[in-house]
Specification:
Elements: E1 2-7, H1 10-20, E2 27-32, H2 35-38, E3 43-45, H3 53-62, E4 65-70, H4 73-77, H5 80-84, E5 90-92, H6 96-103, H7 105-115, E6 122-125, H8 128-138, E7 142-146, E8 155-158, H9 161-172, E9 183-187, E10 192-200, E11 205-207, E12 212-213, E13 216-218, E14 222-225, E15 230-233, H10 240-260, E16 267-275, E17 281-287, H11 295-298, H12 306-314, E18 330-338, H13 354-359, E19 363-366, E20 369-372, E21 375-378, E22 382-390, H14 393-406, E23 412-413
Parallel strand pairs: 1-2, 1-4, 2-3, 4-5
Antiparallel strand pairs: 6-9, 7-8, 7-9, 10-11, 10-16, 12-15, 13-14, 15-18, 16-17, 18-22, 18-23, 19-22, 20-21
Helix pairs in contact: 6-7, 8-9
């Protein structure tokens, strides 16, 4: 079988890397891919836009790529699955209707509230004046979210009323384009955040190993939100007893709610949760795709061919699979970013040290890179995700940082405290 992965980030490199390890996969095409996928065995990049659905269809047909895995949320929200359905492909990724669970926070919130799924209390606003009045009435801390897709940067956890009002003003002034013309403002929940990436065939849903990421740019989990500066799995904050509650109280009810709306959801249901001080899991938000960098610690621990799991979802045979096997290990990923990220940054710096990092047992997933001649150069804000496995979190984290220290590029930045919650 030949596979096609849509996207060019660290998530897509991890997907292509894991697929390429399967004996059943002869080749993986990446549209458009990055510097890492260009050098991954059995992989090749194809220069094409991720929303060029007609072009993707033609390429897949001509090159017999029967399994299509859609990485990012944007093409899912734009309807890539709808466009390719019925064309002879196995497509892993929800339809446009299903992708609303991420593309519209207001829609997702209504779905949760109508189905009794535990989540923060919230209100939806389409004008700044009403939103401002709500914040002044309820006070801070409070959370302001752009309704639509904003590349992970549309959420402000406001500690003061003035900070919330600034977020409202920024959204309605066009900072996030159409995505910010409607806001969801919700109560602030305390506790630890955890990511549960689940796969579903529309009838059955199974959780993968729970992971935790570090969303802010600064050490100590402070500063501006990013797409994620590091992650680790399996997190002890969600033991099996609590994960079972997430399954029965959140994942299965959400799938049933989608079914009631006649949505055939085959792909990832990513539950971003908070575990309150009382030990109660509540949904912060849902995503319709794998998390990045969470998937970069989950997939290296998966102890079965990835294509088997994806095909069970596309072919609606997930219930027939035995329990998903996992390696008995801990995984840690440290993101190396361009200096200035998540603000302005420069591109085009040569990256060195991959060989040393690989010799140390790390897997280096490329996010914002490209191949220029024989060189890998920086081409994004988050550049690399350096992942290591170990018998303990202490070993995995130490090995990841040892590999990070071997990799060099100008103006690089990374946090030195990834995994601090699980270090003894």
């Amino acid at each position: 079988m030949r596979a096609l992965v849509v996207g060019n980030g660290g998530r897509e490199h991890a997907i292509a890397w894991k697929l390429s390890q399967s004996d059943q996969i002869t080749h993986v095409y990446c549209i458009p891919g990055n510097g890492g996928t260009a050098r991954t065995p059995k992989c090749s990049n194809i220069a094409m836009g991720i929303t060029d659905f007609e072009g993707i269809e033609r390429f897949a047909l001509v090159n017999n790529a029967s399994l299509i895995v859609v990485g990012p949320e944007a093409p899912l929200a734009a309807g890539i699955t709808d466009s390719l359905q019925g064309k002879g492909f196995e497509i892993f990724g929800p339809t446009q209707a299903g992708a609303q669970i991420e593309s519209s926070k207001a829609w997702a919130k209504q779905l949760m509230e109508s189905s009794g799924i535990p989540t923060a209390k919230a209100a939806v606003f389409e004008d700044a004046e009403s939103a401002v009045d709500y914040v002044r009435t309820h006070g801070a801390p409070i959370v302001v979210k752009a309704d639509g897709l904003a590349s992970g940067k549309g959420v402000t956890v406001a500690q003061t009323v003035d900070e919330a009002l600034s977020a409202i003003k920024a959204a309605f002034s066009g900072r996030f384009g159409d995505a910010g013309q409607r806001l969801v403002i919700e109560e602030y929940l305390t506790g630890q955040e955890v990511s549960v990436l689940a796969v579903t065939d529309g009838q059955t849903i199974r959780a993968l190993l729970p992971a935790q990421d570090h969303k802010t740019i600064g050490e100590g989990d402070v500063g501006a939100n990013t797409g994620g500066m590091g992650a680790y799995a399996p997190t002890p904050i969600l033991p099996s007893t609590l994960l079972n509650r997430v399954q029965t109280e959140i994942l299965e009810p959400t799938l049933h709610a989608l079914q009631r709306q006649s949505i055939d959801y085959r792909g990832v249901l990513y539950a971003g949760l908070i575990i309150t001080p009382e030990g109660e899991p509540k949904v912060i938000e849902f995503n319709c795709r794998f998390g990045d960098p969470e998937i970069q610690v989950v997939l290296p621990l998966l102890d079965m061919p990835f294509d088997q799991l994806l095909l069970a979802c596309t072919q609606q045979t997930l219930a027939e699979l035995p329990p998903i096997p996992w390696k008995d290990a801990a995984a840690a990923c440290v993101v190396m970013a361009s200096g200035g990220y998540p603000g302005a940054y420069q591109r085009g710096f040569k990256i060195s040290g991959f060989e040393v990092a690989n010799e140390q047992g790390a897997v280096v997933f490329h996010a914002g890179t490209k191949l220029t001649g024989d060189d890998i150069v920086t081409d994004g804000g988050r550049v690399l995700g350096v992942t290591s496995l170990g018998d303990t979190f202490e070993v995995a984290i130490a090995q990841a940082y040892k590999a990070v220290d071997a990799i060099q590029f100008e103006n690089s930045y990374h946090r030195r405290d990834i995994g601090h919650r699980v270090l003894k």
